[in-house]
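Hi, here's the filled form for the chain we discussed.

Project: internal
Contact: R.S.
Residues: 625
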Amino acid sequence: MEDRPLADLFEPADRKRWLSLVETALKGADFEKKLVSKTADGLRIEPLYGAAEPTAQPVRAPGSWKIAQRVDHPDPAAAARQVMTDLEGGADALVLAFAGAPGARGYGLTVTDAAGLDAALAGVMLSLVNLRLDAGGRGLDAARWIRDLAAARGEDLASYDLDLGIDPVGVLAATGSLGAVWKEIAPQLAAAVSELDAAGFTGRAFLADGRPYHEAGAGEAAELGAVLATALAYLRALEAAGHDLDAARDRIAVLLVADADEFVTLAKFRAMRRLWARVEQACGLDPKPLRIHAETAWRMITKRDPFTNILRTGMAAAAAGMGGADAVCVLPYTQALGLPDAFARRVGRNSQIVLLEESHLGRVSDPAAGAGGFEALTDQIAEAAWDAFRAIEGEGGIVASLSVGKIQRRIEMVREARTKAVATRRMPLTGATEFPNLAEKPVAVLDVPPVAPGKPANFGAGAAVACDPLPSQRLAEPFETLRDASDAALAKTGRRPSVFLANLGPLAAFNTRASFAANAFAAGGIEALSNEGFPDTTSLVEAYKASGASLVCLCSSDAVYAEKAVEATEALAAAGAGTIYLAGRPAELEAPLKAAGIHAFLFMGCDLLALLDEAIRRGLRSAPR
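And the returned structure, exactly as it came back:
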C-alpha cells in the first residue's frame, strides 16, 4: 500500500490550471466582468492571489491597539458618569468630542474652560488613558484647557498620553472657512506647540484627519493623499518656525476612517505607514512608528435597521486593528439616530473586547504580511495615494488645493459614481437597500436634544481662507428620506403606500421575482401586498380592487409574461391601476408591455432610487386621506 501524503497524489496547483478550470465554469462569460472587482479609485482586485514575499512594512509601536470611547454628552456630569462606565467596561482611550466640532455629530461637550473639562473627567486618572481631543475650530482652546487642567490637578502634563487633535486644515475642508490665511495660521500653530512644550507637553499636537474626505465620498487613495499632504503641511509649519524636524514629526498623528470593506480598510492602514515612512526618508529621517487613530465610517451608518451597523463597525474595527491602528473608536450603532445610550456604547466597546481578548487579533503586529491579496492591494493603494499626494503638492499644497476646489472636484466624481452604485444596488446596504424591515421597532437613544450650533470658532481673526466645504453624507440617506415619507403617511392615515403584487402563474413561476419586488419596494417604504397567484385575469383584477393598493407590480417568469402579461396589464389598467410595474426586463416584450400600460420595469441594476422616489410620490398622491 502506498504511504504518501494525500496531497502528493494530485498534480501541483498553479494559476494556469486554475484559469483553465475557471474558463470552463464561466462558459464563455467575461472573466474581467465576472471575477475581477475594483475599488472606488479603480484599483484592481483579482479573484485569486498566490503567496507573496512579505514587504518590509512599518508597524505600530509594540502592543495591541487601544479601545477608544467617545465622550460627547453635552452635560459634563452625565459625561463623567459615561466615562467611568466606559473605563470600567474595558475602554483604555477617550475621545473628547466638543460641541461644534464636525466629529461631535450635533452633540458634544459644552465645556468652555479647564473647570468644565475637569467636571467631565471627574475621577479619571488621566495618566492611565490615551486622550484625543476633537474640538474642531476650537482646537487651540481645548489644548490650553487640558494644559490648565493638568496644572489645576497638580499633575505633570508629560505624564499624559495626549493627542490634542489640532487640525485647521480639517476644519477648512469640513466647514469651508478659517479665520485667517495659512501664512498667518502656520506660525500661530508652531507658537502654540512651543507654549505647550514649555508646560511639559510631550504628545501629538496635530491631527491629519481623513474624515472630511471620506464622508464626502473620497476613495482610499484620495483620503490618504489628503491626509499625507495635511501632515506634511504641519511638519513644514513647525520646521519653518525653528522646531527640530526630528522632534516635529513626533508632534503629528493621523486619523483614518475604517470602512466595512475589511480588505481595503486593512490595506489602507498598512499603506499609510508606508507613505509616512517615505516622507520621513525624504526628509532625511529614519522612520519611526506613526500614531494612527481609526474611527469607523460615518457614511456607512444607517438609521434603518440600525443593528446592522454592529456588523459593519465590527468588521471595520477588526480591519483597522489588523492594519496597524494604534487606537480604534467604534461609532455606536445608534449614532445616526441621536445620542447613544449606555447599551449602544457598551456594544461598540465590547465588539473590540471580543476582537482583542477572545480572538487575540492585536497580538500580531502585521497579520497580513505575506498574504498575496493584501500585499498587492497595499502596494496599489500606496502608489495611487502617492500620486494623489503629488497632485495636491503640485497645486500648492493642501490648503491651496482646497481653496481652489481641486480636491473637491476629484472627490465629487468618485462620490457620484458611488451614489449611482447605491441607487442601483450594485453597492448594497443591508437594512436600507437590501432586506429592509418595514416592521422594525424603534431603538432607544438618550432623550437629549442636539446642541444648538453657535458661531464657529476659528484659528485667527484676519483675512479668512474660504473654500467649498466637503459634504458629509451617509450612503443610506436618500433611501431613508423615502422611508420617512412612508412613516409619515402611516402615522397620518394608518397605512403605508402599498404595491399589489400581480403574481401570474404557479408559485414556481412568480416566487423569485415576487420576493425580489417586495424587497425592492420595501427599500422605499412601500409595502408589498402578496398572494398565492391567480389562475385567470378576472380573479387577478378582483383581488387588485379589493387590495386598495395604489401601485401594481406584475411578477412571474419570462415564459408566463410572454403568454399573459399584456392581457393582465390591459385588464389592470382598465380596472383603474394608474401605475403598473413589471419585475424583470423581457426585452422582446418591452414595447407591447409599455403600450399595454406598464409604467416601468423593475430589474437588478435599474436605478431603484429614482423608481422608488417616483413610486412613493405616486402612491402618496393616490392614497386614501
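Let me know if anything looks off before we file it.
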